[in-house]
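Batch job 17 of 40 flagged for manual review because the log was empty.
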Amino acid sequence: MKDDSFLKTLTITHLAGHYSVCVVRGIQDDVRMEFPRATVNVALDAYPNTSDTIEDILVRSINAGCEGFFVMESALFPFLDNFRSAHESAYFRAFNKRIIAVARLGASDRERLLRHDSMEVTPNILLVDGNEPEGMIDLYTTKLLPAEPRGIVAELKLLERIRVGNGRIELLPESLSKFPDKLTNMERRRPLGQGNARSTVPANYSLQADGTEILMVLELCRRHNCTLEIELVANSEWGQVYPNGSSDGLIGSLIDRRSDVAVAAIYRWYAR
């Protein structure tokens, strides 16, 4: 995709408020983007003769303060393959991560993207699919739907189709003036019955839950329109990580990514 003026307008509009921006590219990509904030250029395959892995490169970039990511097409899947593990290894935590990625969304790439396990942890993503012969640019984001008994299913949602010519695009259409943010409103999956939470194991049971930690999570869901889903661990203990890397209990539930939050003081009963 060669319309640099449109990409520049898009990135400045949506990433200018970040502390710094990572431009993630392949070694063959010629990217000349100027941002009003600090920029970290990351070439994912630029160091073939060193022991650095792609995850190592991303961890250093994240720790340098990257909150926004502009990802070129050749680097998209290597970036996504290492996105979750790199953020778990980094010590810098950004609350407003955004990704703008150039992608060719043909049938095979579309299927690979939507099945990628990083879709759950990259909700705020904007995909730019350019059709140079026709002079068109399609902009997509993902729509996350609930899977049973847990997890998500991702679909693509077309936001806008833009015709670009030889002129510079200085302003975006109204539909693109705001970044497709999925964390402000998580589109609550309402609990069954009259409870305030939902059981995942066994599935599809309505729960009434209480307790200090639970009330804090419920307040978070009230503000962001999400649903509290509860699963009791098998041994009802905090658990631990063993020397061989295995884990159990509440800690194991977090490490295995079955849960987002682990709490102990829960009062619960099945609701009607």
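Reviewer: the log was empty due to a logging misconfiguration, but the result itself is present. DSSP finds six helices and eleven strands in the chain. Unflagging and moving on to job 18.
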